[in-house]
Fold this protein.
Amino acid sequence: MERVLRPYILGGVIGDVVNVFSPTIEMHVTYSNRLVFNAQEFSPSLVINRPRVQIQGGDFRTFYTLVMTDPDVPNPSDPYLREHLHWIVTDIPGTTDATFGRELVRYESPTPYIGIHRFVFVLFQQRHRGSASNIPDSRDRFNTRNFADNNDLDSPVAVNFFNAQRPTAPRRRY
């Protein structure tokens, strides 16, 4: 189990976003045909459009909620707005993808301004369809754990994350 959780521990996802969890479902996140692997770096230009998120496992009678956050806002050394919410999709049937769910909070593309940010996808199993329906008041200072508690969601069943940073501007030669 420790080997499976190692990227989340080393990346600070366990602690900053979620508690220790036991992954029981496979979740595949893809941007423009590029599969996201934990701690992989993506340029902000590649993640403008919402990704394809596929759930492998469970069945059509089991529903999931997907949350995407940035725990490093406004910058990783002083994340006082932790977490910033980027996306919530609920009622995703097992063995399908997020397009079959209900978008509770519209996808907001990652735009890190300072430093390298982590963008975390957390998948929760719902107790029943429609159980996750509380829309957060703000995208800033979102808390994944509180959202799960307020919507009667258990521990995460899958987590994935990538890193992104603002591209450096080309330097002018004089």
Q: What stands out?
A: The helical segments are 2-10, 13-16, 144-150. The longest strand covers residues 84-93.
